[in-house]
Amino acid sequence: MIISQNPYTGETLKEHREFSSEDISNALEKADSQFKEWKGTSFSHRSKLMLKAAEELKKNKQEYAETITREMGKPITQSIAEVEKCAWVCEYYAERAEKQLAAEKIDTDAKESYVNYSPLGVVLAIMPWNYPFWQVFRFAAPALMAGNVGVLKHASNTMMCGEKIEQVFLRAGFPEGCFQNLLIGSKKVEEVLVDERVKAVTLTGSGGAGGAVASTAGKHIKKSVLELGGSNALVVFEDADLKEALETAVQARFQNTGQSCIAGKRLLLHKNIAGEFTSRFVEKVKALKAGDPMEEETYIGVQAREDLAKDVEKQVNESVKMGAKILTGGVRKKAFFAPTVLDKVTTEMPMFNEETFGPAIGITTFETEEEALKLINKTQFGLGVSLFTQDHERVKRLIPQIEDGAVFVNELVKSDPRLPFGGTKKSGYGRELSQFGIREFVNIQTVYIK
Q1: Sheet harboring 340-343: ordered strands across?
Q2: Where is each Aldehyde dehydrogenase domain found (predicted)?
Q3: Is the sign of the CA dihedral 130, 18, 199, 92 positive or negative?
Q4: What DSSP letter does each residue of 359-413 carry, written as one string?
Q5: How far apart are CA 205 and CA 207, in angstroms?
Q6: Distance CA 334, CA 345 (A)
Q7: What is the pLDDT confidence band of residue 200, given thresholds at 50, 70 and 90?
């Protein structure tokens, strides 16, 4: 059985019977059969259904948000915002997919030559618990609009969310088999991935899981997209608007109780403003409201599982042993870890060189632009970086030297349907969202007519 448990109350919400091999095969057969029909539907038809999915999400956002909050502990206002963002990505692709996948004429010596975009088939999505609706919809909306069908292996602690997402598509009128939630644990992923009916895979999750899935996909010559961990830097230069930088930095690190791949996890401060910024930052962190995630005023909830809070606690404690200083927080109670700020963090400490997946951040100072750049890039990850400065010439100098997949200036790194999203190094490969994301799971077909 796969158990859904409320991390705040400890209550068992539901016990799910895991799919057998026969159940998996039947689901894949349904998906494969549906693909043969779905790929022939018009963009207009798909668009109407995708807009209905958006309507369903907005109409019943409270129902879906409460499922998120009960199952993984996200504060309810943030869960509602997540559901609303899912509606946005559905609308975005419903309105733009046809243009994004239109055949592109190319002038050659042929009578006619062009590039055609056609769907691949059944795509397996392996998705995490931290944004249990958004991570799925940012895959599903473009994949379905492109003419593919999807099967979802959700995180074992958010299987109720997976069921609700399938419900969204069915309520919107999508035919059965277009999108299915597979009730399977991680040990059965390979069985699904190696099946000849599955043509590609996308995974958002840990480096270990990504490496294993990429290895299996590579062995069977199947397309894969990986969105893995991150350790984004928040870089505050001495000319930054400190008020705006403070507000943004607190949100960038502590929203979703710090459980985000693109959260700002390393706070890099110019030495001339470090003292003032640090004291004001700590004040704001201390003021964050922690408590029952079902209460609207709660900003910091519990982590999704107690072992996750223990991992952050270990990283904090090991950094302290190496010389870091706790300015606030550092205390754990079961799955709750108090919002934590550490000063005097060096590049050798876990708080700098590992991904911290919870409400804790380390402060490191720099003196020069060159030193800041070295600190930004001194990580195994490459999802994104936020630069806070009023000097646009500095920004233009730094951007080409930054190794991350995204650079945001005077703003937190965030995913937006209109912009490509993805990383470099151990943060993965491939892109989601925008026209780049919808073209990941299509056959880019060259047509040459003499």
Answers
A1: 325-328, 340-343, 360-366, 264-270, 232-236, 385-388, 407-409
A2: 5-447
A3: negative
A4: SEEEEEEESSHHHHHHHHH-SS--S-EEEE-S-HHHHHHHGGG--SS-EEESS--
A5: 7
A6: 26
A7: very high
Q: How far apart are CA 398 and CA 407, in angstroms?
A: 10
Contact indicator for 353, 375 with CB cutoff of 8 Å: no
Q: Which of 56, 71, 227, 313 is catalytic?
A: 227
Per residue in 161-188, pLDDT (tens digit) is: 999 999 999 999 999 999 999 999 999 9
Residue 342 phi, psi (nearest 5): -115, 140
Beginning with the edge strand found earlier in the chain, give each strand of the sheet holding 198-204 in spatial order: 179-181, 149-153, 122-126, 198-204, 223-227, 428-429
Q: Whose CA is closest to 199, among 224, 236, 233?
A: 224
Q: Which of 148, 156, 172, 145 is nearest to 60 (CA)?
A: 172
Which residues, 6+ apart, have CB-to-CB distance to 40 below 8 Å?
Answer: none
- Its pTM stands at 0.98
Could you confirm whether domain 2-228 is CATH 3.40.605.10? Answer: yes
Answer yes or no: same fold for 2-228 and 232-409: no
Residue positions counted in the chain:
450
The rounded distance, in Å, linking the Cα atoms of 67 and 81 is 13
**261 catalytic per annotation:** yes
> Under CATH, domain 232-409 is a member of which superfamily?
Aldehyde Dehydrogenase; Chain A, domain 2 (3.40.309.10)
pLDDT at 440: 98
**Where are the chain's structural domains?**
2-228, 232-409
